Every structure is written in C-alpha cells, then in structure tokens.
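Re: that backbone. Tokens:
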C-alpha cells in the first residue's frame, strides 16, 4: 500500500510520511499473521 492510498482512508488523512510508513508496515505484518492463521485453520 502506498502512503497516498493510506491517506485516502478516513482517519488517516493527516498522518505524516513517517507515521504512514510505520502504519503500512504494521498492517502488512498483521495481514501476514492473519493469512498464516487462516491457512492453519483450513488445513
């Protein structure tokens, strides 16, 4: 996800570049955790 895309969501319009990068990194890590969890539950 890009910083511009993140800022298009309500509540994220005013985050600065550094905050946006950190938020994106955390969202990507969370998505990986969720995918792994779903895969374990399906198998």
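Recovered sequence:
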């Amino acid at each position: 996800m890009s910083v511009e895309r993140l800022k298009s969501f309500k509540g994220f319009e005013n985050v600065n570049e550094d905050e946006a990068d950190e938020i994106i990194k955390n969202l990507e890590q969370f998505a990986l955790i969720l995918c792994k969890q779903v895969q374990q539950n399906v198998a």
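The longest helix spans residues 17-42. Helices lie at 3-7, 17-42.
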